[in-house]
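Q: Please design a sequence for this.
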């Protein structure tokens, strides 16, 4: 099967909006090449190694890449993407260069070439993400290993938004709890919750391909007995009684179902959210407070924010 790599050169402020347009066009995920990344100082708390080459990044702005199947609808899809990005200026967003390039890639080549850059990474006090094709021996006696095969554009589990969620789960999950993972993707957060002792984890995703990928990774980590993966739109099909909900998705989506999260959580239950750009931190905090939550923690990593909110009891 052939895939079209779509590469869009835009600005930092338009990154989230352009990424959302690509998601709506059918991309399961995006790759973000940020011109500022090589100059950032990364905190090396857990032994990560950052060896970034400046020539691998754009001179300015951000390049966002996504992959769509080459089919009869691709030309029309590209026209819709281009038009949607141009319309962002109507909302006051600077889209910068707004250049779009496409190239064809064989699935077999794409699916294997990137693996040479993905190695075991310790992302918290206890969690280490290990790609399935790598050999790794635990360093600490209480280390929790998550084996992961990301699949097509589902991410490697090492993006700041995922890292912050896993670190929050490590801090707040207790044995015997019921956890809901909204927008599970590769299943990494659901797996993390189960490894931390949760009794029941309900992982949901609207993307059928994500559901398949999550099930495969959950089986790989031997936690299928505690995790149920279903195709679902946010919390539409979920019954009340959860101890904790985690969602690593866009800020606007978080706010769209925060009221449902309040209903589904038990009193004093926790709502862990990430995928929030710095510019929308206060907006999301205000929304959660208005819906009946107290903000108990706010974490910043690079340009991303994670919030931990507690449902106020009656």
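A: Design:
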């Amino acid at each position: 099967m052939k895939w079209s790599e779509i590469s869009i050169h835009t600005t930092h402020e338009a990154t989230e909006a352009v990424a959302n347009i690509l998601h709506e066009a059918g991309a399961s995920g995006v790759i973000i090449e940020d011109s500022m990344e090589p100059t950032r100082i990364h905190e090396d708390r857990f032994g990560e190694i950052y060896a970034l080459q400046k020539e691998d990044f754009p001179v300015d702005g951000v390049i966002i890449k996504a992959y769509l199947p080459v089919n009869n609808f691709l030309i029309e899809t590209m026209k819709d993407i281009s038009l949607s990005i141009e319309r962002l200026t109507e909302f006051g967003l600077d889209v910068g260069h707004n250049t779009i390039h496409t190239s064809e890639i064989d699935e077999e080549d794409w699916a294997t070439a990137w693996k040479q850059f993905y190695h075991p990474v310790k992302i918290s006090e206890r969690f280490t993400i290990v790609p399935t094709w790598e050999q790794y021996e635990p360093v600490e006696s209480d280390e929790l290993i998550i084996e992961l095969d990301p699949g097509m554009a589902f991410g490697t589990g090492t993006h700041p938004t995922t890292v912050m969620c896993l670190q929050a789960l490590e801090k707040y999950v207790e044995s015997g709890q019921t956890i809901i993972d909204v927008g599970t993707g590769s299943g990494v957060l659901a797996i993390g919750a189960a490894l931390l002792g949760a009794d029941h984890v309900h992982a949901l995703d609207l993307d059928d391909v994500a559901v398949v990928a999550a099930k495969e990774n959950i089986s790989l980590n031997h936690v299928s007995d505690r995790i149920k993966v279903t195709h679902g739109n946010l919390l539409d099909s979920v019954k009340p009684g959860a101890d904790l909900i985690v969602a690593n998705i866009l800020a606007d989506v978080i706010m769209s179902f925060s009221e449902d999260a309040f209903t589904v959580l038990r009193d004093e239950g926790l709502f862990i959210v990430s995928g929030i750009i710095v510019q929308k931190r206060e907006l999301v905090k205000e929304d959660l407070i208005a819906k009946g939550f107290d903000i108990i923690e706010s974490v910043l990593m690079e340009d991303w924010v994670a919030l931990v909110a507690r449902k106020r009891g009656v």
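Q: Thanks. Anything notable?
A: The mean pLDDT is 85. Residues 74-87 form the longest helix (14 residues).
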